[in-house]
Amino acid sequence: MKPILYSFRRCPYAMRARFALIYAGIQLEHREILLKNKPQAMLDVSPKGTVPVLVLEDEQVIDESLEIMLWALQQHDPDDWLSHKEQAFDLIDINDNTFKQWLDKYKYADRFPEYSQNDYRLQAEFFLQKLEQQLCQFTFLFGNQPTLADFAIFPFIRQFAFVDKAWFDKAPYPKLQTWLNTHLESSLFEKVMHKHPVWHP
Fold first, then answer.
1. Which of 31, 62, 78 is the last residue of a domain?
2. N or C: which end of the chain has fewer CB within 10 A?
3. Do residue 164 and residue 118 come from a single domain?
4. What is the pLDDT of residues 89-141, one digit of tens each?
5. What is the 3 state secondary structure string of 126-154?
6. pTM, to two decimals
């Protein structure tokens, strides 16, 4: 039996997990789900009902995206994605716990009428500025090769950029724009975004 991955193609958390699993060469059974119709088999192993969920061969369940990434990289990490791990965790923590909140409000501004979409974008830009500073030093966040932080953060910057792509493309973040496009045009991203049919038990 191969590990089972419950995933949803466009979810940035599931996307980051798939990056690591594909890169590490993990053979698995991919179960594409619909978030509006979650299969009972997934809820039985992870009642919180979010993707990704990885069920290992020994039936151990990993249902946090970053933990799935780390598990995959512990199996196989040929390009040393785990270098700069401590700095990566610090940056990912800001992404997951602060930037993501502003990203959601920016993307779904009609659900948060307290402030305008522009206000939410301004709040989110603190993180874009931080990444731009990092990328002024290197091609990727911690050097000239991508590491854990690049792949863990990219799906969220991608989501942010496509809320208003015309604005993003003209924004004063040239290094970040290049970084984003490098990922978007990569063969690994193409594999990560492969379309799977919805899984039915």
1. 78
2. C
3. yes
4. 999 999 999 999 999 999 999 999 999 999 999 999 999 999 999 999 999 99
5. HHHHHHHHHHCCCCECCECCCCHHHHHHH
6. 0.97
